[in-house]
Amino acid sequence: MLATIIRKELRMLFISPLAWILLALIQLMFAGFFLMRLDAFLEIQSQLLQVINSPGITEIVISPSFASAAIVLLMITPILSMRLLAEERRNHTLTLLISAPVSIIDIVLGKFLSIMIFFALVIMLIIALSISLRIGGMLDFGLLFSNAIGLFLLTACFSALGLYISSLTAQPVIAAIGSLGMLLGLWMIDLVANETNGWMHYISLLKHFRYFNQGLIDTLSIAYFILFIVTFLVLTIRHLDEERLHG
Amino acid sequence: MVDVTGLVTLSTQNLHRNFGHHIAVCDVNLQLRRGEVLGLLGPNGAGKSTAMRMLTGNLAPSSGSIEICGIDLLDKPLEAKAHLGYLPEIPPLYFDMTVNEYLLLAARLHRVNKQVMQIVLKNVKQRCGLRDKGKYLIGTLSKGFQQRVGIAQAIIHNPDVIILDEPTVGLDPNQVQEIRLLIRELGKTSSVILSTHILLEVENVCDRVQIMHKGAVVFDQTMIELRQQDASLEDIFAQLTRS
């Protein structure tokens, strides 16, 4: 049943031009960032040669590209997640899923996984971009891997939050603005956490992502991401159940 | 003597639902047998749609129980829903899908066997008069055809209980006639509940009629009894629901 829901969601996503436009735009932006960093690297390359234990191309080009990708995906997630439940509700199609012998857990998980498949595709494109550097030098695959894992978990957090907000309303636009607001709020926390270094530090998603960005796969960060994802998925399931109970 | 309990496909006990202080459905007891078409009548806001939403698991009752083919809907929702087909008041259609895509999705959601999927699809399109509409986008179809797609979605998995909320709304007189024939045919093998505002439709299609008013069932008789008494449904309806 889960597979049916995922298949349906992906079909709905790729039927519309939205997914294709987003993929093209994202790729264009990444390529831009990537080229800029590469230019910078080539300029300082001769100086780097004189430094012992100097940072390599992975640290100078790929890590910053992933860091900007995180911000771009933060902006784009609400556009993708808004329609997941809000649109179903507006078009009264949620009834089809709920009257069918499918559990609410399957519906929510299917929608979440379908959007994660989309993001996996996006991240794969960034990885392909990074691997193209192999033509001219050596790559630190460990760092690339930790960046990819970090970005995947981060987008999973964004999507889970977006899915929850989408379950609260029947208006996709309100869902999009709501999730964007929440995600920007989480980004703001990151800016605050930079300075105070107190407990806020632990809440900020992007702060946790920064460890992955530096090549550090921290179990605490993974635990936080997973906790964040599970919390919002459970809230979504609870909300849909609640609706059935209270009308 | 045939075992009567084995034939009961849907039964509810003291179904009750309130929204805050407002009582939408109160003490509804239904018993539906295989091969029976039940017409649910009532003025707007009588609680017909709420009752139907409860029967299909879209809304939980405040109290009472629902059994579908002997399976409790609240305890084992997935098993019970497998026996159900439901057309809500507003058909749940994805306008971006073609008719074929949509009906296949409905079939997969209702666990129709993969091998028979194409046969089932062909069959249901034939029954609902959608034979040459398979490749059309649902959004481009007229209201009448969209309504048919909604009906097709509800019957594609050959359910034991079919619940149709105002199925003939928006259809032209010929289509209404076809859909009525279809419902009669469905009523031979399954149980059908349909809600409607058209009294003539009930007289033509249904075996039994119930009238709801202010959340309660105020009238429950078979059409045969009604005909024997030579009573007009219109008069009864007006009498019971005017107050």
TrEMBL record, chain A:
Keywords: Cell membrane, Membrane, Transmembrane, Transmembrane helix. It is a multi-pass membrane protein. One of its GO terms (molecular function) is ABC-type transporter activity. GO terms for cellular component: plasma membrane. The chain crosses the membrane at residues 12-36, 56-80, 115-136, 148-167, 173-194, 215-237. InterPro entries: ABC-2_transporter_component. It holds the Pfam family ABC2_membrane_2. Its main location: membrane. It is found in: Cell membrane. It comes from the Bacteria. This is ABC-2 type transport system permease protein. It comes from Nitrosomonas ureae. The lineage of its organism: Bacteria, Pseudomonadati, Pseudomonadota, Betaproteobacteria, Nitrosomonadales.
TrEMBL record, chain B:
Belongs to the ABC transporter superfamily. This is ABC-2 type transport system ATP-binding protein. Transmembrane segments: none annotated. Residues 10-239 form the ABC transporter domain. Signal peptide: none annotated. PROSITE patterns: ABC_TRANSPORTER_2 (PS50893). InterPro entries: AAA+_ATPase (IPR003593), ABC_transporter-like_ATP-bd (IPR003439), P-loop_NTPase (IPR027417). Coiled coil: none annotated. Pfam families: ABC_tran. Keywords: ATP-binding, Cell membrane, Membrane, Nucleotide-binding, Transport. GO terms for molecular function: ATP binding; ATP hydrolysis activity. It comes from the Bacteria.
